[in-house]
C-alpha cells in the first residue's frame, strides 16, 4: 500500500502544485493528470525517492520512507519498477542486453528466453540484436516498457508511458497494465491522454484520476 | 529560554530568528575586532623589540601567523557547519558555510602573500616550498574549489549540499595533505628553511600575535554574520517577514 | 544476488567501454603525449630527465586520470541509468564501487602498464621502473575512488571539467607525493617500503569511503 500525505514541491522559491494526498491499495490503478509543467514528473520522482519533498511524506505499507527506516526503503525499492522520461537504457547495448543488465542491476534474475519473449511481444523480433542507437524512438520506448512484462515488482510508477507508441504496442501495454492491476499490483502513471485499461471480460478497469493543480 | 534544551538551538536554525540574532551580534564583534586590532598592532609594531637576526622585517609575522591560523580555523568551521547541515538539514548551515568561504580564502591568500613578503628580504626569494606554505597553498585551492562549485550550481539547495560534502571531504584530507607535504619537504630539502622558526619568542611577540588572531577572529564573525544576513534576505525574499523588513528599511 | 549485481555493473561498463573504444583510449594517449612533452620542454639531457622522471610520469598519470574521471558518471546520468541504480534495492555504494572498478580497469590499468615503457624514455633503471609500476598500481585506484566524489558533485554543472580538476587536485597531492617519492627513494637507494605502505594505507580507506561518498554525492546530483 502506497500513501502520499500532503506532498508539496518547491522549485525556485515557488511551490509547483497544491499539496496532494492520496492512497493506492493493492489492485488499484491511479492516473496522474495535470497541465504541462504543473509537476507530474516531479511528483513521481518524489514518490520514488529520487527527489526530496518540501513537505509531507511518502509511506509504504504505513511506514514513512525516510532515513529512520532504511529496511522499509530497501523493501520499497525492491517492489518498485519506475520507467521515467529518459528511458534508462544504454544506446550502445542491444535491447536484450539492456533488459538482462537492468534486471541484474536491480537484483533480479532474468533468463535470456524470458527476455527475448518479452521483446518479441513488444514487436521487437528483428531488432533484438541491434544496438539501441539505430532503433527508432518508438522502438526504444517499447524496449523500456518490455521491462514491465519481466519484472515482479509490485508498484509500477510510469511517467507518460503511452507516448510515441503505435496502436499495436499500445494495446499490448494496456493489456500488461490491466493484468498487473488484476493480479493485485499497484499502478501509478501520468499521462496527458485519457487511456482506458480494460479487463479481460471487456469491462473498462477502474482508474482513479488525481489532478495536480498549480499552487 | 533554557540553553540546555535542543529547542533553544533549533530556534535559531530558522532564518528569521538567525537574522535577528546576527543583527544584534555583528556590531559588537566588529567593535571588538577594531579594539583588539589596534592593541595588537600597537604591540606588534611599537612595543615589540626588533629581532636579533631579522631586524624590523620580521614584524610581518603579526599578520602572517594569525592569518594562517584563521585560514585553518575557518575551514574547520565550514566543515562543522557542513556536518550540521547534512545531519539536520537546516538551511542556515549552507548559508553560513558559503559566507565563511570567501573570508577563509582571503586569509589563506593573505597568509601566502605575507609569507612571500617575509621570505624575500630574509631568504632572497619570493617563494619557498616550505611545508607550511605549501600546505597553505593547497588549502587555498580547497577554498577556491568550494567557492567555484557552489557558484556553478544553480539550484541553491543542491549547491549547499554539494558544497557541504566537498568541505567535509577536504577537511578530512587536510591532515593527510599536511602530513604528506611535510614528508615531501623534509625529504627534499637539505638545509631546512622555515619561515615560522623563530629561535626565541619574546612574550610580547606572542601576545601581539594572539591579539591579532583574536582581532581576525572577531572580524570574521562580524563579517560572516553580516554576509549571512544579506543571504537570508535574498533567499527568503518570497516570505512575508522579509518583505516587511525591506519595506521598513525603505 | 548482491554480488551478481556488482559484477553485472562491472561487465556492463567494460562492454560499453569496448564499444566506445575511442573514449577510453584518448585519456591513455594523453598520458603518452604529456610524457613526451616534458623532455621537449626541458631538453634531452638524460641526467636531468632521470631526475624529473618520477614526478613527470606521476603528474601525467594524475592529469590523465582527471580527464578520464569526467566520463565516470556522465553517460549514466544523461540516459537515466544512474536513476535505476539509485532505485535499486542493492546498495548504491556497491554499484558505484563496481563502476569505479570498471573505470580503473579501462583508464587506470593501462597507465600502470604503459608507465614502465615511457620510463625507458627517461632512462630510469629497471628497479626504478618496477617501483614506478607498483606505486602506480596502488595509487591509480585511489585516484579513481577519491576522484569519483568530484565527478559526482560536478555532474551536469557548468564548466564541469575544469571544476572537477580544481576539486580533486588538492585531494590527489598525497598520492602524488608518496607515489613519486617511492620511485625517488628507490633511485637514491633508500627503502621504498615506507612509501608503498603509506600508499596501501591510503588505498584501503579509499575503497571503503570513496564509493560511499560518491553515492551520497550522486543522490544530491539526482535531486
Averaging pLDDT over every residue of chain C, what do you get? 92
Q: Which percent range fits the helix content of chain C?
A: over 70%
Main sheet specs of chain A = 5 strands, parallel
Inertia-based shape of chain C: elongated
Strand percentage of chain A lies at: 15-25%
Greatest chain-chain contact:
A-C, 30 and 28 residues
Q: What's the gyration radius of chain A in Å? A: 17 Å
Q: Which sequence of SSEs, written as H and E, runs from N to C of chain C?
A: HHHHHHHHHH
Summarize the biggest pleated sheet of chain C: none
The tally of helices of chain C reads 10
Structural class of chain C: mainly alpha
Strand content of chain C: under 5%
Range of helix content of chain A: 25-40%
Number of helices of chain A: 6
Please give a structural write-up.
The complex is a heterotrimer of chains A (215), B (250) and C (223). Chain A is 32% helix and 22% strand. Chain A is built from 6 helices and 11 strands. In chain A, the strands form 3 sheets. Chain A has a 5-stranded parallel sheet, sandwiched between helices. The longest helix of chain A has 16 residues. Chain A is globular and about 50 Å long. Chain B is mostly helical. Chain B has one domain. In chain B, 79% of the residues lie in helices and 0% in strands. The mean pLDDT of chain B is 84. Chain C is built from 10 helices and no strands. Chain C has 223 residues and is mainly alpha-helical. Chain C has one domain. Chain C starts with a helix and ends with a helix. The radius of gyration of chain C is 18 Å and the shape is elongated.
